[in-house]
Structure formats: C-alpha cells, structure tokens
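[scheduler] slot 2 assigned
[scheduler] job type: sequence-to-structure, two independent chains
[scheduler] chain ordering preserved from manifest
[runner] begin chain α
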Amino acid sequence: MPELPEVETIARLLREGGQEQPALVGRYILGVKVLWARTLAEPSAEEFEHRVLKQEIEDIRRRGKFLIFRLSRDWLLLHLRMSGDLLVRPSGTPPAPHDRLVLELEGNIQLAFNDARKFGRVWLVSEVDTVVEQLGPEPLDEAFTAQDLYDRLHVTRRQLKPLLLDQTFMAGLGNIYVDEALNLAKLHPLVPANTLSQAQAGRLLESIRSVLQDGIRRNGASIDWVYRGGDFQNYFRVYQRTGQPCPDCGTPVERIVVGQRGTHFCPNCQPAVFPKGG
C-alpha cells in the first residue's frame, strides 16, 4: 500500500506533471465512466456522474494517505488502499482490465482509477473534513512538536508499532516507514508508548520526519507491484532486510510479526528492554 511519500509523489506528479505526463490542475472534467459502482464510497454512481461534470481541477494535495482534488464546487478524494493506481492516458483509450473509474479531461487526456483488488475508494463531497476529520496530525507539519507527540504517547500503553500505524494517531505512516523510523530512533517496536521519555519522543519524531523526507526525495519506494518510479527501496535500513547487517552496528536484522504485520528491527540497536530514559 502506498504510504505518505508515495502518495505525496503521486499528488505532485498529478499536480505539476512530469517528463511524459501532463499536469491536471486547471483542466475541466468533460466526461465520466463509473465502471464499478462500489468504488464510490459517496455519492451514488448516478449522482457522481451528474455532479462531477464540468468542474475544474483547481489543486491536488495529500492528507495522510488520501489524494485530495479541490474542484470548483466539490472535493474529490481517493484512497488507493492495497492496489489502487492512477493512470493518465490519451482520451478515448479503451478501459484497461481493473479500471474502476475514468474521468475524461480537457486537453484530450483521461484519468483512470485502476484497482485490481477493489479495495480503493473514491468520494465526492462538499466538505473535505467529512472524510478526513478522524485522521491524526501530519508528521511533517511544523506545528506538530515533540511535546505534542510526547503528550499523545503518554495517554496510551499501546505498543509503538501498531500505534504508529493507527491513522487516527498520526496520518500517513505505514509498515515501511514505521520500521525505518523505529530503527533510526533506536526504539523496539513493542515498547509501550507511555514509557518513552521526552528525549525519546523527540528522537522518534525526528526519525519519522527524516525517513519520510528521504522517501519523498527519492519518490517513494517501488516494492509494490502497483506503485512504481521511486528508489527508496535501495536505501532501506531494516525493512525486508531480514538476516542482513544493521547499517549502524552490523547485527543481523530480525523479523517478527506485530499486529499481523511483518516487522523488521535490529536486536542490538533496538533492544527489547523498555526502561524510561533517553
């Protein structure tokens, strides 16, 4: 599943365009094909087809793992989930296998939402907060401080790994970047959140921001069979490196399962001892 850096990269490419892909901002929606109605979380396919027509795409941004299109009258939100993908193609291109929604845009191009596993969802709403209001703070938001993180950690005894994956605690993190950040912060994935000191909380936030910013600089990680284009996978510290040396101490990376998610860590740098202290 694309995480914050991958979704940020997709938003930037759709907004600004690239070498072989035109920018979508400023284009009007001239046609729509709903090929699988359940892709739409809200509204109905009939209402969506009527309402989205002739709206202009004014901006494309990200919130957590959501792509957010600001239209001239509404907000269009997409969550790619496990296998969703957005494809920009020439207008009139026949639907590809697994296409669920196609928007025909001004300038003879189309935007297709392709989703093999059918987990991805699309919303067309008048207020964006009706979809994203439950999301936690953005880890890259400068207004979110180490003290804020410390305070949020100290209201729960949940283990760090599943807590950081909880989108209501912090938005945008997934399995890859949580493993990478915990290793950089020298914290075991099973440590209870409320045992972290202020120094540890500060180090954790700094590490989260570091791996996310590095991921964005490298256009994300291309390890999923859908997402493509990034090379952060070539710079992983521990994720999917079971048995390989930790970049800091050389100890073989270990893998455990936490909350049904494969979890990678260094047993030397991230010891399973959880005393308070920095």
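[runner] end chain α
[runner] begin chain β
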Amino acid sequence: MAVPSRRRRLLPRLFVFGVALIALAAVVGTAAIAFDVGGARGRASRLVARVELALNPPPDRPIEDVQVTPRPTAKATATPSLAPGETPPATAAPTPEPPREAVDVNLITHPKDHFITEIDHEWCAVAATQMVLAMHGKAPLTEDFQAQLDARIGEWQSRRDSRNGVWGPSAMTLALDAYGVPGYEVRTYGSRQDAMADAARAIETTKAPVILLTWRGAHSWVMTGFRADADPLLFDDVRITGTYILDPWYPRVSSIWGPSDPPGTFQDLDNMRFNYLPWKRPEGEYPARDGLFIAVVPTQPLTP
C-alpha cells in the first residue's frame, strides 16, 4: 500500500529532528565537561580512567611493606645463676633516667617555602613526593616538574600497590629512589600512636620528612615535625600530641573532609583522629594494609 504523501514528508523531518537532537546533546555534553557543570568533568575523567584501567591494567609487581610492632616499654634483666658460695659480680651504678620533658620538633621554619599544591585533584601523592624530593634538594617546586613526575608512574605502578592503577605508597618510594633519595620504606602499624611515634623517631634520627597516608589511604600528607610529652628517642612510651603537616590539597575544600589547612599547620590529636585513619580502599582488598595505619618513612639521613 502506498504511504500517504503527508507521511512521506514527515519521515525526513523526523530524521532531521533526531539528528539535530543528537548533535545538540553532544554539544551540551561537551560544554558541561568544559565548564565542569555539576561535576561533569570529574565524572567523565573517572569514566575514561575506568575504561583505560580495564583495557590496560597495571602490572602485578611485588611490593614490600614493613610491619612495625609496638616498642616494649620495659626491658627485663636476667639474674645470672650463682654456684654455691659464689658472690654476685659487682655492678656499675645505675644510670639516672633523663628527665621526661615535652618536646616540639619541626624540620622547617618557613613552611610556604617547601610547599606546592597538587595541580590535579588526584595528584596528592605526586605533590607529596615532590615536596620530599625538594626538601632533599633533588627537585624544584614547579608545576612542570610535578607533571613530569606524574608522567613516569608507569615505571613504578603495581596492582598490589594501587588497584586503581595510579600512585600508591610503594610507587612513592620508587620515585624517591629514582630521583636520588633512597631509603624510604612503606611501614604499617596497628595503632595511630605507634605510627606517629615511629614517624617522630625517624624525623629526629634522619632529619628527613615522613609521608602519612591519610583519609583511609586516599590522600597524602607530608609530616615535617611533631609535639610529644617526651623525647621519642629516649622514651618508648612517648605520647605524640600532634604533627606539623604540609597538605597538598590546600587550598581546596573537600565535601567529605572539609577545608584543607595552610602549609605547616599543627594538627592536634583531634585532627589526627579525624584525618589519619586505617587503610581501607573501595576498589578492593589489600591484605597487608587493610585496617592498618600507613606511612612512608625515611631510613637514611637528609641529603644536603
């Protein structure tokens, strides 16, 4: 049966109208991404990242995390057995214990001179690594260097370190070593106080900064100092009361974690309890890290 002439004229119009709608949607979508309307740019970049991760997953390279157990607070002394009639040997006079005094330690006096923000909202690990390199005199605090550093992630990434295919704490140690700062290692701890005390001892011993994995492992802080109720090198039962931090997120505001703090802010225990949390990532399980506090700790002295 022949199609009525009116309908024949309507079909081309509907086709043209449909093509126009598709073109308009493409333009609106592109504009939304360009102007980041409603977070469209972030959603688009995350979608691209997921597709890329599925097509090109990171290698399954081995990593090495160091489990740190609490230091003993007392040392037992064995009493030697004596033969009948034998007198105990003379012992030296006991060394008096040092006074227990509060300490305030910070490696830097002008935090802004050692700070750079993450130029991409997902580059906190890159910026933290860059700041540590700069404190060792191995990198400039420039956006160009930060972009170059991030571009090398393929050399250091591992699925065991980051199931997202991006920067993890092990990648930071490899990047530091590649730029002439060896000796950093990933350490895990059962408690926040253990982690902060070990970081404080490393800072005092090496005069080098520590990287803390905050926000359940989603973010990186550079720790340059601390306050404590005693010297961590003299007392095993020291209590760390806060840390000095360079936060690459500054000056951004997080919808979950709130506004970031300026470089060198002292983070008291309330702030540490809020921000420095046990590792737990949504992308999957990390058997050696889940439920533990993570830090990237120096073992060698700060380079001149």
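[runner] end chain β
[qc] chain β: The longest strand covers residues 219-228.
[scheduler] slot 2 released
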